[in-house]
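Archive record
______________

***
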Amino acid sequence: MSFFSSWSAWRGFKKLPVDWRQIVFYSETGQDWHHFSDLISQLNTQQRRTVYVSSDPADPGLQYQNPLNKSFCIEQGLFRTIFFQVLQVDLLVLTVMDLDNLDLKRSQHPVHYVYLFHSPGSTHMVDFANSYDHYDSILCVGPHHKAEIRAREKQAGLEPKNLLEHGYQRLETLIKAAREHNQVFHPGEQTVVLIAPTWGEGSIFNRVGEPLIRGLLDAGMKVIMRPHYHTARQAPELVANLRQGFSANPDFEYIDQMGESDSLYRSHLLICDWSAMAIEYALSLEKPVLFIDLPKRVRNPGWEKLNIEPIEISIRHQVGQVLAVDDISLAAQIVNEMMTDTDHFRNYIRELREQLIYNLGNSVAVGALAIAALADEYQGKGSGGKAE
């Protein structure tokens, strides 16, 4: 069924007139929608037409209704490959890394590719060295992105990209929502701990999930387990065993939606490893993070040659503490110590995030204006000036 529906969607997209092929967004999964939604809405408010193409039939963005937006679902497979190879649009905005490195290639037509970060993390350790080499414009979250990408360009002899000082809308959404929730921790109340690590063999749930959760529960804390969706896909037995092992405890809770935010607000502290979510959590909710010192998640073995410390490393001692794996039995004790001066921590974080993030509170407007300006600059260049 997906083959024929994707074929139909691809044909429908090809028939779009040129004035609908100026600004196109591509989403690989429904997880991307919360990064795109406000930008698309803002562009529509500015009377800009947008097209949203997703490869996920369950993507909520496909249900977005606006007379200035059209949506298409082209699932992974043959027609998605063809879609990318023969794409004729002026701008394609996407959060997919490694364009032209893996299966998704740049079009044979002069499309201008705009990368939108889905994380505030650094570009040169967790990702491949060339993950961002083939985009034309990049909407940077903060000064660290500009410094890293410029250093990579110099290192590899690349043409300078158009680096735009954008910001991070997800952070702003969390900051605004946090103000509507009671985020003050009162001494004596039950501590709620959220465990939301990265995925893979070296992540928390794979390495120390059982003793960590058990120790926190035994200390009288409430524990929310929120695995990365890749963990649920790649290690379903591991997740099922952890859920089953603690499901009888009323202080244990399992959440399988990465996009949900309620667990962020209800928790008092995050336990993490190398997930960039820790940056979002600390900077938006003004709450501390306990980092379990597991091996770094490294896709670029030459990251140190850039001579820039990734934000995933530098931020650890700025927003929390680091606990060695061998000391996992001390996790509950460290959590209690970290919850003793939350007022001071909140004030410190408010200053820190202004230094690390561009256009805090205004990134959607800035991003929409930047995309619209690029669409005007490249009008007719990638779309061919006529409908197919």
About this structure: The first helix runs from residue 2 to 14. The chain has two domains: 2-168+360-377, 173-356.
